[in-house]
Design a protein that fits this description.
Elements lengths: L6 E7 L3 H14 L5 E7 L6 H9 L5 E5 L5 H16 L4 E6 L2 E3 L4 H12 L3 E2 L2 E4 L16 H19 L3 H14 L9 E2 L4 E5 H6 L9 E2 L6 E4 L2
Parallel strand pairs: 1-2, 1-4, 2-3, 7-11
Antiparallel strand pairs: 4-9, 5-11, 6-9, 8-10
């Protein structure tokens, strides 16, 4: 891998021009790393917003807008951009990010590069904070693996109902939040389901696999960083 790895952002766009611009601006304004580019795929937007984005960014050497003449759907639309990056850029990482997601962490790219050298991950998932309720959306929805996990979950639910019944749920919840903040914000997970609004593909994955991006998959070796998703 190069001394300063190349990173490509892949953004799938469809009609919502303001969202895409805000996503791109969050990268340009917040990311403190210079060896990156941004590929925007207009997925057949009927409102001409793809051409408007192309005109807006045509002077920016870091940004390339690809316009599809039809809506390819989520998977094929992302594959169009993914294959363009593989063909035209020698990228070490591809960050596939939804256009309604913004990056606030200035060390976002430095973090994913450092984590690669630590764990040699194939696909990485960031910590994603909803701007609606400030909740972390990653990892994805939990799935029970055995009856013990089901029973533990039932026990926890019954305990919460009991605490609510004796009016202790809210004060304990407030105390838990305070203690959780003092313990640190980041936690790593492996072999878990990732939220699809942002996925980071390493050079190992890009080289070794024919990529067909789907909405729901399980991936390996994740490190969590802070992003913000608008909805």
């Amino acid at each position: 891998m190069k001394n300063k790895p190349m990173v490509s952002f892949l953004i799938l766009h469809y009609q919502t021009e303001d969202d895409t611009i805000e996503c791109v601006d969050s990268i340009l304004d917040n990311v403190e790393y210079d060896n990156y580019n941004i590929v925007i795929v207009d997925n057949g937007s009927p409102n001409n917003s793809g051409k408007q984005l192309d005109n807006k960014y045509k002077e920016n050497v870091k940004i390339k807008v690809i316009i599809s003449d039809k809506n390819l759907g989520f998977a094929k639309g992302n594959n169009l951009g993914f294959n363009y990056i593989k063909k035209h850029f020698d990228s070490d990482f591809i960050v596939m990010i939804n256009n309604d997601t913004i990056i606030k962490d200035k060390d976002f790219l430095k973090g994913i590069i450092e984590e690669y050298y630590n764990s040699r991950y194939d696909i990485l998932g960031p910590k994603i904070i909803s701007l609606v309720d400030n909740q972390n959306l990653n990892p994805g929805e939990f799935q029970f693996k055995n009856s013990k996990q089901v029973n533990n979950s039932i026990y926890k639910i019954n305990l919460l109902l009991f605490l609510e019944y004796i009016y202790l749920y809210k004060p304990i919840k407030r105390l838990y939040k305070i203690l959780k903040r003092t313990k640190g914000k980041n936690k790593n997970f492996s072999n878990t389901k990732l939220h699809g609004s942002c996925l980071i593909f390493s050079k190992d994955y890009i080289k070794s696999m024919m990529v067909y991006i789907i909405k729901r998959s399980c991936f390996e070796k994740k490190r969590y960083f802070i992003l913000s998703q608008k909805r």
